[in-house]
Amino acid sequence: MMTTDQARSAVVFPGMGPSRFTDVGKFMMIDPYVRKRLAAADDALGRSVLDEFRTAGTDFGAFAQVAFFINSVALADRAVETQGLAPDVCVGFSFGQKAATAFSGALPFAEAVRLTHELALCEQRFFEEQHQDLVTLTITRVPAAALDEVLGELAERGEFHEVSGHLDEGMHMVTMREQVLEPFQRRISAVGGYSLYSMKPPAHCRVLTGLRARVEEEVLAEFELADPELPLIADHDGALITRADQLRTLLLDTFDHPVRWHPVVDTLRGMGVRTVHVTGPDRLIHRLDVTTRAFDVVALGPEQALRPARTTSRKEK
């Protein structure tokens, strides 16, 4: 059994929620760690990321994604320099895989910026042609039996649906046609649940195997990944990722595999991890019961960056 002085730590890069300049623009303009990464990203893309993000009209557009990526990496930089962050393992949850790829040393930062941008453009082209009617909804306080009941009703009507993620007890992601989103939300309310937010385009479902194939051919083929210097944990099954070929597969799996947080937690605990540092504009991971029950959680997002970080202890739960 691992003793206290052998306790390990992990850094977790969160998935991407709606990203708006009005929410993080000021932070990006004044934070020195972000400014340093912004300069490198501007050089990599040959344009001002901040200007493009400011004028972007969508919450999940290409430069909103690049900005989210930059903020996540810069906040990890801050944690390394100001808090002595020296993790034993790294997790990229959903979109956070891109920041994890850079932080783990598998891809230089400038290349990871280009990868993030090219992936966003490839996705945009794909969804201009296919699956324009699909959305992914995050719901909470919905026990498995209640979710099965509501999904069974969709199945009886012949409505397309897929479970795109299991995040916590009663918290799930479901992909469906946008036309049935509102009645689905009403049914979720009727069984005592809540709808948090929806994403368009959709994510993490088997119907997107075509996008996976396109990304593999048009984007990832142009990038040479190295073996990560810091091991990663896969966000769909908790597998340990230590080689470049495994990481390449993981980056592709994100398109057509549902994300599952519990296996990640199980792997971290099995490795003796006691503390997780969630570095990025996170609205979810650091608050999940399954996270705070298992670990001491240090959240460092834009709102915490300029004040001392707060640790959520397992003893507080």
TrEMBL record:
It holds the Pfam family VinK_C. InterPro entries: Ac_transferase_dom_sf, Acyl_Trfase/lysoPLipase, Mal-CoA-ACP_Trans/PKS_FabD, VinK-like_small. Keywords: Acyltransferase, Transferase. GO terms for biological process: fatty acid biosynthetic process. It comes from the Bacteria. Its EC number is 2.3.1.39. SUPFAM superfamilies: FabD/lysophospholipase-like. This is [acyl-carrier-protein] S-malonyltransferase. It comes from Streptomyces alboflavus. The lineage of its organism: Bacteria, Bacillati, Actinomycetota, Actinomycetes, Kitasatosporales.
